[in-house]
Amino acid sequence: MAGESSVGAAGIPASVARDAAQFHQMEMLRFTTAGSVDDGKSTLIGRLLYDTKSIFEDQMEQVEDASRRRGDETLDLALLTDGLRAEREQKITIDVAYRYFATPKRKFIIADTPGHIQYTRNMVTGASTADLAIVLIDARNGVLTQSKRHGFIASLLQIPHVLVAVNKMDLVDWSEAAFNGIMAEYSGFAEKLGVDDLTFIPISALEGDNVVTPSENMPWFDGATLLHYLEHVHVRTHHNLVDFRFPVQYVLRPNQDFRGYAGRVASGAVRPGDEIVVLPSGRRTKVKAVETFEGLGEEALSGDSVVLTTEDEVDISRGDMLVRPLNLPTIGQEIDATVCWMTDDELRAGKEYWLRHSTREVRAVVTEIVHQIDVDTLHRQEVDAITLNDIARVRLELASPIFYDRYELNRETGSFVLIDPHSHFTVAAGMIRGKTQDVADVIMPPADGGVERGVSPNVVWESWNITLEERERRNGHRAAIVWFTGLSGSGKSTVGRAVERMLFERGCQTMFLDGDQVRHGINGDLGFSATDRTENIRRIAEISALFAGQGSIVLCSFVSPYRKGRDFARSLVPNGRFCEVWVSTPLEECERRDAKGLYQKARDGIIKEFTGISDPYEEPENAEIAVDTTDLTADEAAERVIQRLERQGIFG
Amino acid sequence: MKTWRSSLRQLESEGIYIMREVAAQFERPVLLFSGGKDSIVMVHLARKAFWPAPIPFPLLHIDTGHNFPETLAFRDALVERIGATLHVGSVQASIDAGRAKEEPGPNPSRNRLQTVTLLDTLKELNVDAAFGGGRRDEEKARAKERFFSHRDRFGQWDPKNQRPELWNIFNGRKSLGEHFRVFPLSNWTEMDVWQYIAAEEIEIPDLYFSHRREVVERDGVLLAKSEYNTLLPGEAWVEKTIRFRTIGDATCTGATESNASSMDDIIVEVAAARTTERGGRHDDKHSEAAMEDRKKQGYF
Ligand SMILES: Nc1nc2c(ncn2[C@@H]2O[C@H](COP(=O)(O)OP(=O)(O)O)[C@@H](O)[C@H]2O)c(=O)[nH]1
Fold first, then answer.
1. What is the residue-wise DSSP string for B104-143?
2. Chain B residues with beta carbon closer than 8 angstroms to that of A303
3. Distance in angstroms (rounded) separating the CA atoms of residues A292 and B49
4. What average pLDDT does range A119-136 have in this prediction?
5. Cis upstream peptide for A114 (omega within 30°)
6. Predicted structure pTM score
7. Which of A9, A516, A533, B103 is the most exposed place for a label (fewest CB within 10 A)?
8. What is the ipTM for the molecules in this complex?
């Protein structure tokens, strides 16, 4: 076996392995691979494992033996990944298999799924946990129907990155034209799907070109090799870090004095002292502590398995969900979803199943099959029943409510499975599109003194004639409200304008609102009394929501000293579409700048009720980002805001 | 603010999540404890998952009767320290009861016989979910294994009839008499396990660290001197500096010549290793599809 002695079969140089600190910084990337039979998927995976030295000698010997027994002259790398004997005999892969390898940069988990027509279900399974999909295309065959199906499934499951590996370039004379042709055709198709990040790499899995080492045969290609791409692609963008959702998994009560709620944070984050609401009861309390085996934690982040305790004794059990009062999921019993059918028993409207969603299980009836989606043509057709490997849009009615977000915004709380109550088999994978109709089971009391809207706190943007999705698709980015709050002179508007300029230059549709503008126009009738200030913010928030509903990224620059006002604005847009930017430049610095001479006037008592001097400023507790302009230029601060928006998924 | 966790922390969190799902979805789970590093890591995860409460299920050791004495001592000390309940299923008892038959030949391995004892004990204890330390990186047949692996009434695994596992949703529904094997370490590699043991400072048996021991080389495998391994004609005991990469039945667990005497040494050695841990297992060499066959019958 080739390779320098310092790197062993674990793929990690000994020096790195020993350096625990570095190892603990290693990220994980989960990807799925799809290709039609014989496109070279197994060879590619074998090649990746082989070239990253993830193969042990005894495994290699087995492959050599097997290759020899079959009379092959060269080593068949595909044999490395072939699992079960039956498949080896048929020479096909028939299920999802998981493979592992690591480089000094990342640990990789491959969900290896076959691409035959009858195995859509396996691809969906593999894609459900993937951050990235590799779609293999045989350069000789060009874009086949099946290659398109793989792209469709990747987009359906919302895999953020799709990498198209154009394989067997050795068989088309390393032709740039062949590669470009495939790239053009597939890009055109992917545009229709709304695949956000699409990359093409020409490779030869058999000979290793552009897999781990750059190809000498294709000097015309100046992009990264496949492994380099896998090591560097940004993987954290799609994790929802905004909406706190904690499905309670298990209640721990070791003694009379301790009652803890075990679970894994599905999205967002929580800290001791944070206010929370228990669903479905609607009871409010605060997080007392984040308990772990190691001691009290400062916070629990998306993906962390922790135990939370609460300030008050509230009745909480498995299947409940802890969330924030002003950031609720939808609570509903009637949902509209896309399902992939996973069994031979066909689905007809009226059948009853168990629906398992996060840690909750409820009875469910499929009330209507809206249409089936042909995975090859993407055409919708009306059908009476669906069966194995079909994908369809359906409506479901549940025996009791679940707490969900749209799959698009939150994979964890937007997904479910259906279980046959007799065979206990998992029969469908479901992705929630929204509710079929409003359900107001839980009435949330507004926070004391909070700004009230008078209508349901559940935000619905469905009443528009042209939907937000359509607008966003055309704009190429999500709609959002970016709310700059901070003291007078902190730099809110300067940073806000810089952000708007950057967004505009990226081609985003934007709108900028600040005090001067609205005080002269729509809010000309308002003064500075407490009531008028509240009304001022209420109107601004509603206006921003309208602009956001129209697809814009709305930048609002207002002192907005009170939490309740800012939280109200937050409550008007769906989860993940609000970014609170706290321009946290300290008072001394703002006062030193005093660009408009206002602080002086406030100090002299000429201006009464001036925020920071004679009126309080309630610092944000849950701002998405804070920037202090004492040491940052406006552009530097703006750059950070842009990065934050990127992480929040505003650009796709 | 850091908004992500390292791969090791993600694996840990996943393992804990799986354990809690099992505790919530099943009535009588057990944790299959072999005394090897993977099952020690499982116990560690279980303690974390339910802390400050005790582990809500017992440990089950299938005792082949061919254990290294160090393994048993370690097992008993661990159980005592964490206050867990331990059940032991004895292969010898299965043989005595005529449920299993010792393999012919000298120094028979009892790896295969374990299956009988395991299935009998699971039935006896009415177990509906058994945690195993299996990892998907160990062997090709395991690459398709689920976290929740369904077993029919006869304890058998049907690779064609496994339930799809999507997102983080695990379906533990079953009919009477069926049970599940659950593998919380599915996504871990051997390297992850060692890194984790080092990071968490988990205690492991001394057998894993290099020491002097009398061994005999048979079919390319170094077998340790013990009452269960006797010399064949032409063989002789030789003292070597060795350690074990896996710990199982003494008749078939091979040792590796090694000077690795600390966790750091072990990690460096594993990083540079050129053979799988199973390469040291005598019985896996029997046939390319050996593992798969045993799994179908209900092996661990
Ligand atoms: N010439 C050439 N042949 C390849 C390449 N990649 C795979 N193959 C061959 O294509 C055949 C099918 O490959 P395999 O990996 O088994 O395909 P799978 O069905 O997608 O897993 C095998 O004979 C491979 O050797 C390549 O880049 N160039």
1. SSSS---TTTHHHHHHHHHHHTT-SEEE----TTS-GGGG
2. 4-5, 10, 13
3. 9
4. 89
5. no
6. 0.75
7. A516
8. 0.87
